[in-house]
Amino acid sequence: MTTDDHSADHGATSGRWDPMALKAGASVALVFAVPFSIAARWAADSQDDSALAIWLSLGAVVGFVLGAGCAAWVQRLNLPYSHALATATGTYLAAQAVFILFRLLRGADVSWFAAFFNLSVVVGAGVLGGALGQRLRSKGFRPTGLG
């Protein structure tokens, strides 16, 4: 079954984006990456040992890779990297906007450099997730139960 056949089998998607794939990837990213991000921020703010914060931050990056990979894998438009990058950056920006808003409301400092640096790491996670999702599809692994 080709990718075009697969697209036809699971319903119509219009335009450049597969909303179901973006939602699936964002859900995975939010479930895995955001809790690790919150824990990493807490660890960095409250402990002298930064090793825990580093490990938790790496866990958040893995969460973004998983979410991006999920979106790349389940998308039906043969655009794995577009869906992976949109998922990773979109979920990061949404979560980061909430985190920044809370910090501003509490009167805490916001490290804008860190937010933009972390965005570059998340973009890298999106590319890696896109590669993993594309690899799954090219090896013939297709998601089931879609549409």
Layout: helices, strands, pairs:
Blueprint lengths: L2 H7 L9 H28 L4 H24 L5 H27 L5 H27 L9
Helix pairs in contact: 2-3, 2-4, 3-4, 3-5, 4-5
Question: What is the arithmetic mean of pLDDT?
Answer: 88
Quaternary state of the chains: single chain
Please count the beta strands (DSSP E, at least 2 residues each).
0
Taking the sheet with the most strands, its summary is:
none
Question: Please, how many domains?
Answer: 1
In N-to-C order, the SSE pattern is: HHHHH
The general outline is elongated
Rg to the nearest angstrom?
Answer: 17 Å
- Count of individual helical segments: 5
- Give the helix/strand class: mainly alpha
Helix content: over 70%
Give the strand content: under 5%
Low-confidence stretches: 1-10
Task: Provide a descriptive summary of the structure in words.
- The chain has helices at residues 3-9, 19-46, 51-74, 80-106, 112-138.
- It has one domain.
- The protein is elongated and about 45 Å long.
- The protein has 147 residues and is mostly helical.
- The chain starts with a helix and ends in a 9-residue tail after the last helix.
- The chain has 5 helices and no strands.
- Keywords: Membrane, Transmembrane, Transmembrane helix.
- The chain crosses the membrane at residues 21-40, 52-73, 85-105, 111-132.
